[in-house]
Design goal:
Among the domains are: 142 residues, no CATH class; 181 residues, no CATH class. Helix content is 56%, strand content 9%. The strands form three sheets. Strands 1, 2, 3, 4, 6 and 7 form a six-stranded antiparallel β-sheet that branches. A four-stranded mixed β-sheet has the order 5-11-10-8. Strands 9-12 form a two-stranded antiparallel ribbon. 38% of the residues are buried.
Amino acid sequence: MAVAPTDLDQGSFSDAPPWTIDDPEALTWRRGLDEVRARVLAEVPALTTPGRWPPGARLAVVARRLGTAVGLWRLREKSAGGEVSRAGISRRLRLAAERLGPTYIKLGQIISSGEGIFPPELVDEFKLCRDQVPAEPFRVVREVVEADLGRPLDEVFRWVDRTPLAAASIAQVHAATLRTGERVVVKVQRPAVAELVHDDLRVMAWLAPKLVGRIPIAALANPPALVELFAQTIAEELDFRLEAENMLDVARTFAELGQRGYVIPRPHPTLVTPRVLVMERLDGFRFDDVVGMRGAGVDTEAVVRTGMIGFVEGAILHGIFHGDLHGGNLFVLPDGRTALLDFGITGRLDDTKRVAFLRLLMAGSANDVRSQLVALRDLGVLPPDADLDQVVRELHLDQPPIDPATMSGEQLVGELQQIIKALLGLGAHMPKELMLFVKNMVFIDGAIARLAPDLDLFGEIAQLSLYFATRHGDRILADVGIDPRAVELDLSGVRASFGVDDATEKLTHRELRQRRETIRRNLSERGRSRRR
């Protein structure tokens, strides 16, 4: 009879470990990480405050690369219009990002996770930045590993695959076997990447204020705030000890919640440094391999359901969640559990924000608009002194919703412009944690489309609400003073967000996709009519 690993009370780990983490606090590489994390975050304001003078040579390189990309697009693809034009500028921006290096590649990776937020051509093109970034030569990998571990590569590893499993902006990962026989993955940071990222952030910070009000997309994005948001997400990725700690913290959260649908690889007890992270190797199905999963008897609807519960549960009850879900960062084990990888970007909510987030979801389930606005204010989306009555009026939240599928392209664009103008006027912005959460929800939306297109969305939301009410009712009551077991679920707001009326009792993702296609078509027809 197989004996269960001794560290499953410490984290949601695999059942056949190469080693165990019985006392996470005793790991030597964790010493002093609270101070390291605080110091990294304290550096962000200095990196994102625009200097008086432009940051020299690096600015010239960035301007040349991006200027060339836009210039070639204007000459060759812009006149074609439509999808050809969008595909052309997307490809040229992706190539420019790869040539500019880690910071811009990372920005592209964030865009690649924004399905439904950014144009599809841009998302599809930047997906190539996820794991198809040119790799560092193996001699460079060897130099980094040996410098950080303080000994020759062959003294630690019996074998290291010279071809990386994946190469991304900050690092690349190699399959390997330790001298003691364990199969592992080695994540190795690109040399000098920290210095380059800091230089690029200074360039972005200097350029950002000069873009305000010059182009519509820049006005929407609020470039200075976007740079600060981006700096916050990338800063912690430059020390792999912080990533390893994120792995242990998320794994512990799932264990405490009794959530075993996720599996986190164990970081090695000793082989973790700022630039090298050795971890347990897990194998499974790629997240888009629906045929393979179903052929192996994996219930893909259960995979999606577990994803939704685990992701929300960790955020609202423990204030921590994986901050960069995409197809390259997770796969499905043969037993149906989901393995989570790459914890460089992890959402962490202090208790005030966690409670505000919990209140936001509770208010959403009851369709309480004003309480949702209070929660958004506490999260930092709205200024502390925001007039909530004005917000209701400006965003027309006191009026019946309009079905976007019935609107013409001109009407859709007009409505969006009015909303954007109102939000900017109200001083709204997107905090890092909410941006990560929304981005992850967009990924889960895409996962439903691939793995469970006929799932009844309203039914799943109702089941999710029931799960939290029955399993965590006392905790939610203590945190926000609302007993979810006494709250009547009101899906009116959810139906309105999907653009359907209150009489609609069931909506599958397949049907939702058809509605979105109608909206996309209306917008495309508007674009074609303006070019005529």
